[in-house]
Protein backbone atom coordinates (compact mmCIF):
# COMPACT_ATOMS: atom_id res chain seq x y z
CA UNK A 1 0.00 0.00 0.00
CA UNK A 2 2.82 2.39 0.89
CA UNK A 3 4.60 1.51 -2.33
CA UNK A 4 1.42 2.27 -4.23
CA UNK A 5 1.01 5.60 -2.41
CA UNK A 6 4.60 6.53 -3.22
CA UNK A 7 4.07 5.59 -6.88
CA UNK A 8 0.76 7.47 -7.00
CA UNK A 9 2.12 10.66 -5.51
CA UNK A 10 5.21 10.58 -7.76
CA UNK A 11 3.26 9.76 -10.90
CA UNK A 12 0.62 12.41 -10.38
CA UNK A 13 2.72 15.22 -8.95
CA UNK A 14 5.91 14.79 -10.97
CA UNK A 15 7.20 18.35 -10.73
CA UNK A 16 6.41 18.62 -7.03
CA UNK A 17 8.06 15.45 -5.89
CA UNK A 18 10.92 15.68 -8.39
CA UNK A 19 11.86 19.18 -7.22
CA UNK A 20 15.41 19.01 -6.03
CA UNK A 21 17.23 22.31 -6.19
CA UNK A 22 20.83 22.71 -7.11
CA UNK A 23 22.83 20.71 -9.62
CA UNK A 24 20.49 20.97 -12.58
CA UNK A 25 20.02 24.73 -12.22
CA UNK A 26 23.78 25.23 -11.94
CA UNK A 27 24.34 23.14 -15.07
CA UNK A 28 21.67 25.14 -16.90
CA UNK A 29 23.36 28.41 -15.91
CA UNK A 30 26.65 27.11 -17.30
CA UNK A 31 24.94 25.93 -20.49
CA UNK A 32 23.31 29.38 -20.77
CA UNK A 33 26.68 31.13 -20.46
CA UNK A 34 28.15 28.87 -23.14
CA UNK A 35 25.12 29.38 -25.38
CA UNK A 36 25.24 33.17 -25.09
CA UNK A 37 28.83 33.16 -26.37
CA UNK A 38 28.05 30.61 -29.09
CA UNK A 39 24.89 32.40 -30.24
CA UNK A 40 26.46 35.85 -29.87
CA UNK A 41 23.53 36.96 -27.75
CA UNK A 42 23.59 38.92 -24.52
CA UNK A 43 23.66 36.80 -21.39
CA UNK A 44 20.81 38.93 -20.01
CA UNK A 45 18.60 37.84 -22.88
CA UNK A 46 19.52 34.16 -22.54
CA UNK A 47 18.97 34.23 -18.76
CA UNK A 48 15.59 35.92 -19.18
CA UNK A 49 14.56 33.08 -21.48
CA UNK A 50 15.91 30.52 -19.02
CA UNK A 51 13.87 32.10 -16.20
CA UNK A 52 10.70 32.10 -18.30
CA UNK A 53 11.05 28.41 -19.13
CA UNK A 54 12.22 27.58 -15.62
CA UNK A 55 9.03 29.05 -14.15
CA UNK A 56 6.96 27.17 -16.72
CA UNK A 57 8.54 23.82 -15.87
CA UNK A 58 8.70 24.23 -12.09
CA UNK A 59 12.43 24.70 -11.73
CA UNK A 60 14.00 26.30 -8.67
CA UNK A 61 14.03 29.75 -10.28
CA UNK A 62 15.43 31.40 -7.16
CA UNK A 63 18.76 29.92 -8.30
CA UNK A 64 18.49 31.80 -11.60
CA UNK A 65 18.54 35.15 -9.78
CA UNK A 66 22.21 35.84 -10.27
CA UNK A 67 24.71 38.58 -10.74
CA UNK A 68 27.46 37.77 -13.19
CA UNK A 69 30.72 38.90 -14.72
CA UNK A 70 31.84 38.07 -18.26
CA UNK A 71 35.44 38.38 -19.36
CA UNK A 72 37.02 37.53 -22.68
CA UNK A 73 40.62 37.45 -23.69
CA UNK A 74 42.73 36.27 -26.64
CA UNK A 75 42.63 32.75 -25.31
CA UNK A 76 39.79 32.44 -22.85
CA UNK A 77 36.16 33.12 -22.00
CA UNK A 78 35.08 33.30 -18.40
CA UNK A 79 31.61 33.74 -16.97
CA UNK A 80 31.21 33.77 -13.20
CA UNK A 81 27.79 33.84 -11.56
CA UNK A 82 27.15 34.81 -7.96
CA UNK A 83 23.97 33.30 -6.57
CA UNK A 84 22.68 35.31 -3.56
CA UNK A 85 20.21 32.56 -2.65
CA UNK A 86 23.04 30.08 -2.03
CA UNK A 87 25.11 32.70 -0.23
CA UNK A 88 22.17 33.47 2.06
CA UNK A 89 22.24 29.79 3.07
CA UNK A 90 25.91 30.11 4.00
CA UNK A 91 27.12 28.20 0.94
CA UNK A 92 29.78 29.13 -1.56
CA UNK A 93 27.52 30.67 -4.19
CA UNK A 94 29.65 30.82 -7.32
CA UNK A 95 29.05 28.95 -10.55
CA UNK A 96 31.44 29.46 -13.43
CA UNK A 97 32.13 28.58 -17.04
CA UNK A 98 35.69 28.91 -18.32
CA UNK A 99 36.92 28.01 -21.81
CA UNK A 100 40.67 28.28 -22.38
CA UNK A 101 42.87 27.51 -25.32
CA UNK A 102 46.45 28.05 -26.34
CA UNK A 103 48.13 27.47 -29.66
CA UNK A 104 51.74 27.12 -30.70
CA UNK A 105 53.19 27.08 -34.19
CA UNK A 106 54.64 23.65 -34.99
CA UNK A 107 55.82 24.21 -38.56
CA UNK A 108 54.73 24.65 -42.15
CA UNK A 109 53.67 22.32 -44.97
CA UNK A 110 52.57 22.64 -48.58
CA UNK A 111 49.01 21.70 -49.44
CA UNK A 112 47.58 21.15 -52.91
CA UNK A 113 44.31 23.09 -53.23
CA UNK A 114 42.01 23.85 -56.20
CA UNK A 115 43.79 27.20 -56.34
CA UNK A 116 47.25 25.68 -56.51
CA UNK A 117 49.82 24.76 -53.87
CA UNK A 118 49.55 26.84 -50.71
CA UNK A 119 51.79 27.11 -47.69
CA UNK A 120 49.95 26.02 -44.55
CA UNK A 121 50.96 26.75 -40.98
CA UNK A 122 50.52 23.90 -38.53
CA UNK A 123 49.42 24.85 -35.01
CA UNK A 124 49.08 22.69 -31.94
CA UNK A 125 45.96 23.78 -30.06
CA UNK A 126 44.95 22.79 -26.54
CA UNK A 127 41.33 23.50 -25.71
CA UNK A 128 39.68 22.84 -22.33
CA UNK A 129 36.42 23.82 -20.61
CA UNK A 130 36.01 24.04 -16.84
CA UNK A 131 32.54 23.92 -15.32
CA UNK A 132 32.47 24.78 -11.61
CA UNK A 133 29.61 24.76 -9.13
CA UNK A 134 29.31 24.19 -5.38
CA UNK A 135 27.32 21.00 -6.04
CA UNK A 136 30.09 19.16 -7.85
CA UNK A 137 33.34 21.14 -7.67
CA UNK A 138 34.97 21.42 -11.09
CA UNK A 139 34.30 19.29 -14.16
CA UNK A 140 36.96 19.43 -16.87
CA UNK A 141 35.71 18.73 -20.39
CA UNK A 142 37.37 18.90 -23.79
CA UNK A 143 34.75 19.62 -26.45
CA UNK A 144 35.34 18.60 -30.04
CA UNK A 145 36.21 21.29 -32.57
CA UNK A 146 34.75 22.08 -35.97
CA UNK A 147 36.62 23.90 -38.71
CA UNK A 148 35.86 25.53 -42.06
CA UNK A 149 36.50 23.31 -45.09
CA UNK A 150 39.85 24.93 -45.99
CA UNK A 151 41.26 24.07 -42.57
CA UNK A 152 42.95 20.76 -41.72
CA UNK A 153 42.03 19.44 -38.30
CA UNK A 154 43.35 16.39 -36.45
CA UNK A 155 42.59 15.39 -32.89
CA UNK A 156 45.74 14.28 -31.07
CA UNK A 157 44.39 13.64 -27.57
CA UNK A 158 41.05 14.48 -26.00
CA UNK A 159 42.17 18.08 -25.43
CA UNK A 160 44.89 18.58 -28.07
CA UNK A 161 44.49 19.27 -31.77
CA UNK A 162 46.66 19.90 -34.79
CA UNK A 163 45.25 22.66 -36.96
CA UNK A 164 46.56 23.45 -40.44
CA UNK A 165 45.59 26.85 -41.84
CA UNK A 166 46.85 28.98 -44.73
CA UNK A 167 50.06 30.70 -43.53
CA UNK A 168 49.70 34.27 -42.25
CA UNK A 169 45.96 33.93 -41.79
CA UNK A 170 43.58 33.62 -38.86
CA UNK A 171 40.67 31.22 -38.78
CA UNK A 172 37.76 30.80 -36.43
CA UNK A 173 37.15 27.28 -35.20
CA UNK A 174 34.01 26.44 -33.27
CA UNK A 175 33.64 23.94 -30.50
CA UNK A 176 30.75 21.46 -30.47
CA UNK A 177 28.57 24.04 -28.69
CA UNK A 178 29.33 26.74 -31.26
CA UNK A 179 31.78 28.74 -29.13
CA UNK A 180 34.28 30.50 -31.45
CA UNK A 181 38.04 30.13 -31.04
CA UNK A 182 40.58 32.06 -33.10
CA UNK A 183 43.75 30.38 -34.27
CA UNK A 184 46.61 31.76 -36.35
CA UNK A 185 47.85 35.24 -36.93
CA UNK B 1 -12.22 -6.24 27.47
CA UNK B 2 -9.76 -7.20 30.11
CA UNK B 3 -7.40 -4.27 30.78
CA UNK B 4 -4.32 -6.41 30.34
CA UNK B 5 -5.55 -7.76 27.00
CA UNK B 6 -6.41 -4.23 25.90
CA UNK B 7 -2.90 -3.06 26.74
CA UNK B 8 -1.40 -5.92 24.76
CA UNK B 9 -3.58 -5.13 21.71
CA UNK B 10 -2.65 -1.44 21.85
CA UNK B 11 1.02 -2.31 22.22
CA UNK B 12 0.79 -4.67 19.22
CA UNK B 13 -0.89 -2.01 17.09
CA UNK B 14 1.77 0.54 18.00
CA UNK B 15 4.57 -1.94 17.38
CA UNK B 16 3.17 -2.80 13.94
CA UNK B 17 2.57 0.83 12.99
CA UNK B 18 6.00 1.83 14.17
CA UNK B 19 7.69 -0.81 12.03
CA UNK B 20 5.59 0.20 9.00
CA UNK B 21 6.44 3.88 9.49
CA UNK B 22 10.09 3.01 10.00
CA UNK B 23 10.08 0.89 6.81
CA UNK B 24 8.57 3.77 4.88
CA UNK B 25 10.96 6.35 6.30
CA UNK B 26 14.11 4.29 5.91
CA UNK B 27 13.52 2.11 2.86
CA UNK B 28 10.88 3.60 0.56
CA UNK B 29 11.54 7.27 1.21
CA UNK B 30 15.27 6.65 1.15
CA UNK B 31 15.01 5.00 -2.26
CA UNK B 32 12.86 7.81 -3.61
CA UNK B 33 15.20 10.53 -2.37
CA UNK B 34 18.22 8.70 -3.73
CA UNK B 35 16.50 8.33 -7.11
CA UNK B 36 15.53 12.00 -7.10
CA UNK B 37 19.02 13.25 -6.31
CA UNK B 38 20.61 10.82 -8.79
CA UNK B 39 18.19 11.85 -11.53
CA UNK B 40 19.09 15.51 -11.11
CA UNK B 41 22.82 14.90 -10.83
CA UNK B 42 22.99 12.70 -13.89
CA UNK B 43 20.84 15.15 -15.87
CA UNK B 44 23.15 18.00 -14.82
CA UNK B 45 26.28 16.11 -15.89
CA UNK B 46 24.90 15.09 -19.27
CA UNK B 47 23.70 18.65 -19.84
CA UNK B 48 27.26 19.92 -19.32
CA UNK B 49 28.73 17.57 -21.93
CA UNK B 50 25.97 17.45 -24.56
CA UNK B 51 25.94 19.81 -27.49
CA UNK B 52 22.29 19.39 -28.52
CA UNK B 53 18.94 18.25 -27.09
CA UNK B 54 19.16 15.07 -29.20
CA UNK B 55 22.62 14.19 -27.92
CA UNK B 56 21.55 14.88 -24.34
CA UNK B 57 18.52 12.61 -24.72
CA UNK B 58 20.51 9.79 -26.33
CA UNK B 59 23.18 9.92 -23.64
CA UNK B 60 20.69 9.96 -20.80
CA UNK B 61 18.34 7.24 -22.02
CA UNK B 62 21.32 4.94 -22.41
CA UNK B 63 21.06 4.61 -18.61
CA UNK B 64 18.85 1.66 -17.63
CA UNK B 65 16.86 3.80 -15.14
CA UNK B 66 16.05 6.57 -17.61
CA UNK B 67 13.19 6.90 -20.08
CA UNK B 68 12.10 9.69 -22.39
CA UNK B 69 8.85 11.38 -21.38
CA UNK B 70 6.83 11.64 -18.19
CA UNK B 71 6.98 8.87 -15.62
CA UNK B 72 7.64 8.05 -12.02
CA UNK B 73 10.35 10.68 -11.46
CA UNK B 74 10.15 13.31 -14.13
CA UNK B 75 12.90 15.83 -14.66
CA UNK B 76 12.59 18.61 -17.22
CA UNK B 77 15.95 19.74 -18.51
CA UNK B 78 16.37 22.97 -20.48
CA UNK B 79 18.95 22.17 -23.14
CA UNK B 80 20.30 24.90 -25.45
CA UNK B 81 19.54 24.20 -29.10
CA UNK B 82 22.24 25.67 -31.32
CA UNK B 83 20.10 25.62 -34.47
CA UNK B 84 17.01 27.23 -32.93
CA UNK B 85 19.06 29.53 -30.67
CA UNK B 86 16.68 28.74 -27.86
CA UNK B 87 16.24 26.21 -25.07
CA UNK B 88 14.42 22.96 -25.65
CA UNK B 89 12.66 21.33 -22.72
CA UNK B 90 13.64 17.65 -22.64
CA UNK B 91 11.45 15.54 -20.36
CA UNK B 92 12.98 12.48 -18.77
CA UNK B 93 11.72 10.02 -16.23
CA UNK B 94 13.77 7.87 -13.89
CA UNK B 95 12.82 4.68 -12.11
CA UNK B 96 13.86 4.48 -8.46
Give a verbal description of the structure:
In chain A, strand 9 and strand 10 (180-184) form a beta hairpin. Chain A has one domain (2-184). Chain A has 185 residues and is α+β, with helices and mostly antiparallel strands. In chain A, helix 3 packs antiparallel against helix 4. The model of chain A is unreliable at 10-17 (pLDDT under 50). Chain A has five helices and ten strands. Chain A has helices at 2-12, 14-17, 23-38, 43-56, 84-88; strands at 67-73, 76-82, 94-113, 116-133, 137-141, 145-146, 152-155, 160-166, 170-175, 180-184. Chain B starts with a helix and ends with a strand. Chain B is an alpha+beta fold and 96 residues long. In chain B, strand 2 (73-81) and strand 3 form a beta hairpin. Chain B is 57% helix and 22% strand. In chain B, strands 1-3-2 form a three-stranded antiparallel beta sheet, with helices on one face.
Per DSSP E runs of 2 or more residues, the count of β-strands of chain A stands at 10
Query: Roughly what percent helix of chain B?
Result: 55-70%
Largest interface: A-B, 42 and 35 residues
In DSSP terms, counting alpha (H) and pi (I) runs of 4 or more, how many helices of chain B?
2
Beta strands of chain B, count: 3
Strand content of chain B: 15-25%
Given as residue ranges, the uncertain stretches of chain B (5+ residues, pLDDT < 50) are none
Oligomer: heterodimer
Which strands sit side by side, in order, in the main sheet of chain B?
Answer: 1-3-2
Strand count, sense and barrel status of the largest sheet of chain A are: 7 strands, antiparallel
Share of residues in helices of chain A: 25-40%
Going by helix content, strand content and strand pairing, the class of chain B is alpha+beta
Q: Judging from the principal axes of the Cα atoms, what is the shape of chain A?
A: elongated
Question: What are the SSEs and their pairings?
Answer:
The complex is a heterodimer of chains A (185) and B (96).
Chain A: H1 2-12, H2 14-17, H3 23-38, H4 43-56, E1 67-73, E2 76-82, H5 84-88, E3 94-113, E4 116-133, E5 137-141, E6 145-146, E7 152-155, E8 160-166, E9 170-175, E10 180-184
Antiparallel strand pairs in A: 1-2, 2-3, 3-4, 4-5, 4-8, 6-9, 7-8, 9-10
Chain B: H1 3-48, H2 53-61, E1 66-68, E2 73-81, E3 86-94
Antiparallel strand pairs in B: 1-3, 2-3
Amino acid sequence: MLNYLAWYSAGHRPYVIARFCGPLESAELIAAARASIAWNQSLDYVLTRLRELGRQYGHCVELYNVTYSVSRGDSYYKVVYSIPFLESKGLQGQVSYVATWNSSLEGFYIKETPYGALIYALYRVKYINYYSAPQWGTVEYCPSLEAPSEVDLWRLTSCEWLVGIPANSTVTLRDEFGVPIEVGG
Amino acid sequence: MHRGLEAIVIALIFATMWSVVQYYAVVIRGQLEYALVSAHRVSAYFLLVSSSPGEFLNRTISLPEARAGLGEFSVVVLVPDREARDFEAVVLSFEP
